[in-house]
Amino acid sequence: MTDNIRGALWIVLSAFTATGMTVSVKALSGTIPSMETAFGRSLIGFIIVLPFLLTRRPLRFTSRRWPLHLLRGVLGVVAINCGFYTLTQLPIATVTALFFTAPLFVTLLAPVLLKETVGWRRWTATGVGFLGTIVVLNPGGHAFNPVMLLAVASSSMFALSLILGKKLSVTEPPSTMLFYVGGIMSLGCLPPAAWVWTPPTTTEWLILGLVGVFGVMRSYFDIRGYAIGEASAVAPFQYIRLIFIGIAGYLLFNETITASTLLGAGIIFASTFYIARREAALNKTDLTAAEEPSSAAPAP
Predict the structure, then answer these.
(1) Rounded CA gap, 256 and 278, in Å?
(2) What is the Cα Rg of the chain in Å?
(3) Rounded CA gap, 42 and 77, in Å?
């Protein structure tokens, strides 16, 4: 079994657990406010990973770059609350398709925040991807719901958080980054959850626990998948989540995937797949150039 196949299997597991988290959030939507669910996801997830973080070295509880840590945590609070609210209001397949726009926002923001150069091919693919988003949104159509815009906002906040994570990773160890974002999100989600708090039943506590466990498992599987396989090879397997979501939505919530959602998701998939392949090709070119003598070096 090649590394890419093993990485892809981890990503399929990630898609399955992400579906489990989505279904659990949807199952609570009738009785538990989404802000309460978001707090449960953040706190339970933080409690689960904290013992592992404390065993990692180096772990620094202080950082000179705390403003970026704070901003990243706040973005996470906004993203998770917007995302979970949309799951309570819209078909889960539609929301999932819109969540897949995060890589497009990363490409859009990278030149400004990371000073990365984005060529015309990736700009074109990003533009096509956002056209796919418009297809899913279907503005002016009967299926359009303004709440869809919150799903797009959630993806943009998540993308910005990813970029900040990349900036922080230059000086901060992963354990410190996880500690800060987990703690800030738990604290940040508490006030809105307390405002609408509804005491959960025993069953609802169990489902809240599943939301946290599935969320942590999804993150772990993502890390394993991308660590083992090439990003361009394993990333497309994320889109199997839409199949899992479609089946779960139909069987559990009597939801059907609309034609606009299918078409738009296909366009978004094609564009993000191309961006991943293009990024991999450029990285290989850079590595080759670094390993070989430069042909542009001045003559002796």
Answers:
(1) 34
(2) 20
(3) 9
- Residue type (1 letter), 102: A
Cβ-in-10-Å burial (0-12, 13-18, 19+) of 282 comes to: middle
Residue 296 buriedness (CB in 10 A; 0-12 / 13-18 / 19+): exposed
Cα(44)–Cα(216) distance, rounded to whole angstroms?
9
For residues 226 and 73, give the distance between their C-alpha atoms in angstroms, rounded to a whole number.
23
DSSP 8-state assignment for residue 171:
T
Residue 17, number of CB atoms within 10 A of its CB: 23
| H helix runs in 66-201, sequence order | 66-89, 92-99, 102-113, 120-137, 148-168, 174-195
> Could you read off the pLDDT of 25-42 as tens digits, one per residue?
999 998 999 999 999 999
Using 50, 70 and 90 to split pLDDT, how confident is the model at 256? confident
Percent of the chain clearing pLDDT 70 (strictly above)? 90
Residues 225 and 11: beta-carbon distance below 8 Å: yes
Instruction: Give the helix ranges, DSSP H, for 90-146.
Output: 92-99, 102-113, 120-137
115-146 pLDDT, tens digit each:
877 788 888 888 888 898 888 888 766 677 89
**Phi (first) and psi of residue 128, to 5 degrees:** -65, -40
Token look-up 């579906």 returns 19
